[in-house]
User: Fold this.
Amino acid sequence: MTMMRRFFPCAILGLALHAGGCQPAPPPAVARPLLVEFEQRPWDGDRAAGRELLTDHYRIYTTVTRPEVLQYLPGFLEAAHANYRALTGLGPAPPARRMPVYMMGSRAEWAALTRSVVGSQWGVYSSIEAGGYCHRGVGVFWDIGGISSMSIAAHEGLHQFLYHRLADRLPMWAEEGLAASAEGYQLDGLTVRFTPGRNPARFSDLRRGLVNDWWIPLEKLLAMDAGDALQGARTERAVVYYGQLWALVHLLRSDPAYADGFARLLADAEAGSLHQALRVPADRLKQLRRHGRRYNRTVSASLFRHYVTDDLDGFERQYRAFARTLARLG
Assistant:
């Protein structure tokens, strides 16, 4: 779950914010249709009533009445799903149960639904001010207007995708970095192009962190999660965490020295073989996964050393230089 995000209007999402220099140019973004065929029927839920929209990969429950949301949300989610596969390099999955997504028409409806979805954890989720979350593979959102609802759905949808696809859990530096990479997109008529390397919100977060000397050292960053970023930090400083992870995953995916290792991390997580990289019994890792924060703090640095590099000092120098170039400060 990510509980601190800011998004920019569609008009600026097309800005070319990728860095120059030796960084390879990103591949052309694939234009995907916003209008797709979907099945529609009435939905009468426990907490609200609306419509159920069925696509190839999603079962969408919504009380939204805005025509543009009803018309374009199914196609946007399907396009986002294709982008998740491109980001992760994971192949097509065998037919499975459609992933559940709730898009409520108001925050009050969202709050009522959230109480039934998360139960005793309501206190954690009640502070969310914009958009929604993913909880155990279920996306729960409300329509906040404009395109921001779609941006949040794209980020949280990556968490949902990984929940349903991976046998093992990724460390949060990889998962949150991929989710931040899933946010950027451009609308062009009735098509959408996802642009992982062009994300104005995360560009701004990264640049602010560097300018204000709020850089989070790599060793600390690898062990962090969203809760660590938010604890005791002002909003403008907390979001540096996401900006840095966006830059980190951008580096890992674009640099040939690291891309193969990052791809192997994802493939091994899908296969459920991370215990081999960690040299622990599979049952022990499975038990540890039940304790989210402890799992992340235990495995994050070890998995980075195994799949990326064990030279953390040398990598951090390269990473910080890359981040400064990406933020147009180099």
